[in-house]
Amino acid sequence: METDEELSSGKKDRHTNRIEACLDRILPPVSKLPGRLHEAMRYSVLNGGKRIRPLLVYAAGECLNVGLEKLDVPATAIELLHAFSLVHDDLPAMDNDDLRRGQPTVHRKFDEATAILAADALQPLAFQAIATAPSLNANEITNLVALIADACGSLGMTGGQAIDLASEGKQLSVAELTELHSLKTGALIRASAMSACSLTPEVTSEQRAAMNRFAADIGLAFQIRDDILDVTGHTQVIGKPTGSDENLQKATWPSVFGMEESIRRCDELLESSRDALTIFGSAADTLQTLATFIVERER
User: Fold this and answer.
1) Residue 212 half-sphere exposure, CB side, CA atoms within 13 Å?
2) For position 238, what pLDDT does the model report?
């Protein structure tokens, strides 16, 4: 008989294969003009990645018994927006990175102008995926657009990136660094988990609050773990140069509070996030396993 961990791992693999197929279908083929732009778009999305955000969508949907065809929509849209943000983050005007997922960044593989255009094209494609989804009704489409747009704008991911750039070389407080991480990384992760709540009228206020608490905690834990890996990881494993945060004098949890406190805070957030899921019982087993993976991952 399979253990709970083996069952969760099997679901993770099936969900990963599912989102890969969804992404491949929605991205324009290289054979369609403009071919070079489409090649860059496909390269930025399909060249690997942990697919954490789509996996959160599917696992949260399992908690609320939302069908996979509905969950495919936010899973696809959010991963396209995540790829869009990574292309921009890597640009010379931002972090100026040469590697992403062990491969040359898009502006290195192609050129800077093509990278900008590829990212720009991924953003509307994400919202097109929601707006034209045959599995969703008008209310569900509206709810998803509002949720995800809010997570990406100046009060979400984009605003977090702006604060991150403005904070280089500065000493931040716990509250300031938490706000930075919650916007830059946490906002889209929160939208991933909360998207399932937008797709079922049966969700209760208690379930919504529990999912929101989980999402906030695990989103912050995700970024702190990234900060830790930038110090302790290896380029061959994490797929990007280590020590880049220090070189750019970025405000990170280890740089501000030290490694020991960073690990302690990450573990604390994991425990809190898992506790929030008790309301869902065994339906949250996959989400529980995913939360542990996020905090214990090596890349």
Assistant:
1) 10
2) 53
The rounded distance, in Å, linking the Cα atoms of 122 and 104 is: 19
Task: Please identify which residue in the block is written with the tokens 């949260």.
Answer: 60
Q: Are 183 and 165 contacting, i.e. CB atoms less than 8 angstroms apart? A: no
Tens digits of residue pLDDT in 191-210:
999 999 999 999 999 999 99
Contact 171, 177 (CB under 8 A): no
Dist. CA 201–CA 168, nearest whole Å:
43
| Residue 68 burial (CB count, 10 A) | 14
Q: Is the per-residue pLDDT at 4 higher than 80?
A: no
Q: Among 299, 147, 286, which residue's Cα sits nearest to residue 234?
A: 299
Q: Domains of the chain (ranges plus CATH)?
A: 4-296 (1.10.600.10)
- Dihedral through CA 252, CA 254, CA 258, CA 261, nearest 10? 100
User: What pLDDT does residue 282 have?
Assistant: 96
Q: Record the tokens describing residue 161, joined without a space.
A: 């990136």
- The 3-state secondary structure of 65-107 reads CCCHHHHHHHHHHHHHHHHHHHHHHHCCCCCCCCEECCEECHH
Instruction: Write out the E strands in the chain.
Output: 99-100, 103-104
Q: Is 198 exposed, middle or buried (0-12, 13-18, 19+ CB in 10 A)?
A: buried
C-alpha span between 14 and 71 (Å, rounded): 14
Confidence bin at 237 (pLDDT 50/70/90)? low
Bridge partners of 99, per DSSP, are: 104
Output the pTM of the full model. Answer: 0.91
Q: What pLDDT is stored for residue 53 in this prediction? A: 97
Label residue 231 exposed, middle or buried (CB < 10 Å: 0-12, 13-18, 19+): middle
